[in-house]
Amino acid sequence: MKACEIPERFVDESLASHWKVDETEESFLRLMRHLEVDSNFKPYFEKALGHFMTRCCRLSDSRGMTVLDLGSGVSWTSAILANHEQIKHIYAVEPSRERLKHGPFVLKHFEIPRGKVTLLEGNFTDFDIPRQVNFAVLCASFHHCYDEFADILFSKIKAILAPGGLILMANEHYVDHWFSFHRFLSFIKHFPRRRELFYKLSNLRSPYPYDGEHWRTRNELEEIFERNGLKAEIFIHDGDLCKEAVPFYRKMGYHYYYAILERM
After folding, report:
1. Which of 32, 45, 116, 135 is the most buried (most CB within 10 A)?
2. Is 202 domain-assigned?
3. Are 96 and 73 within 8 A, CB to CB?
4. Would you give the DSSP letter of residue 179?
5. For the chain, what percent of residues have pLDDT higher than 90?
6. Residue numbers of the domain that contains 97
7. Residue 1, pLDDT above cutoff 70
C-alpha cells in the first residue's frame, strides 16, 4: 500500500478512545454511545442500508451476496452488514492499521460468526479482493479520497462489481455556496496569519491535508459519478451527522446525504 495515496491521519493513527474497542464490554459500550448517542453515525447508516437492501434483493441467490466495505474503520459497518442474512461474506478494507487491530473485537461484540468478515489492509487505489462482489459500501470514507484518485477508485470498484451490482455511499456530506461564504469570512478573520491556513482565497474549499477531508458541491459529486459511468440517486438526511451542539455558522452550507450508484 502506498502511504502517499492516503492522508497522514490514517498512517500510524492515534485513535480517539471511542474507537479503541477491546474484549471488555465497557469499550464496546463506549463505541456504541459514540455511534448512537453522540452522533447519528449508526442510525444514518442503518437508514441508508435499509433503503439500499430493498434495491439489492434482486441480486441475492441461494449462495447469498458478497460485499466490499471500503474504508471500514473498526468494522462496525461490516458488523451491521454481516447481520443481514442475505449477505454471505464481507471484505472489510481499511488503510489504518490501528483501526484494523480493533476490528476483530468489534465483530466479536456484535456476535458475527467467525469467517464471515475478512479484514484487509488497503486504500482507495490499492486493494485486492479475490472475487467479484454484489455491491460495495463506502461509509464516511469517500470525502477522504483525493480528487486525483477518485477515478481510480471507481474504476477498481467497477472491475470487481458483479453485473447489476450497486454502490452505497453513506454518511457523506456536500456543501453549497454558504459554506464558501463562511470560509471566506474565516479567511478575512485570520488574514494576518493567512499563510498558516490550509486553504487560500483562490480555493476556499481546499481539502484538509491532515485527513484529506473534501468539501465538494453536489454538482461536483454528480460530475465525478457521471464521468465514471455511474448514475446516482442522492437522498438527504434530516439533521446533522454529529449531535453535539456547535455554533450555527459551523454547520452553514452542509448537507448530509447517502447515494445509491449504478452503472449507466
Report:
1. 135
2. no
3. yes
4. H
5. 81
6. 3-173+216-263
7. no
Local structure of 202: helix, strand or coil: coil
Grid cell in block for residue 43 = 442510525
pTM: 0.93
Burial of 11 (0-12, 13-18, 19+ CB in 10 A): middle
User: Which amino acid is residue 19, in one-letter code?
Assistant: W
Q: Which long-range contacts (CB under 8 A, 24 or more apart) does 60-64 make?
A: 60/86, 60/134, 63/88, 64/88, 64/89
Q: Give Cα separations from 36 to 25, 46, 135, 145 (angstroms).
A: 16, 11, 25, 25
Q: Is residue 209 part of a domain?
A: no
Residues 240 and 44: beta-carbon distance below 8 Å? no
- The model's pLDDT over 60-104, given as tens digits with 9 standing for 90+, comes to 554 689 999 999 999 999 999 999 988 999 999 999 999 999 999
Work out how many domains the chain is built from and give that number.
Answer: 1
CATH number, domain containing residue 228: 3.40.50.150
Q: How far, in Å, CA of 26 to CA of 28, rounded?
A: 5
**Which of 1, 234, 25 has its CA nearest to residue 109?**
25
For the stretch 19-70, pLDDT in tens is 999 999 999 999 999 999 999 999 999 999 999 998 877 655 546 899 999 9
Q: Which among 87, 93, 92 is positioned nearest to 66, based on CA atoms?
A: 87
Amino acid at 222: E
